Hints:
By secondary structure, the protein is mainly beta.
Amino acid sequence: EAQLVESGGGLVQAGGSLRLSCAGSGFALDGYAIGWFRQAPGKEREGIACIDMSDGSTYYVDSVKGRFTGSSDSAKNTVYLQMNSLKPEDTAVYHCAADWSQCSTLVAGWFDTSYEYDYWGQGTQVTISS
């Protein structure tokens, strides 16, 4: 079964760092746009970053720009989200999603509740203590 497998969440203090991983299982991530999303308790899902596996381009929302960095390792079929200078408001369940498109399309999907991504990860909890 083709799926995305996430890992790397945890509990850290404010100012700390975490690196999330999103591994493709049963399919190759090359050619996909990989989006990172988060959902905090009582809040709507928020798209925060995108990595285009075709050309390596990235996109970040302002709230994480300069603190979060996306990267990929095609040999490991894995995408990473390095999160630095973490804040309590970054606490959320983080998901990755794969879309056979470019980041421009994937990001547009953030504002379309009916948009369906090709694959979703199961999510990983990130908790930042103050």
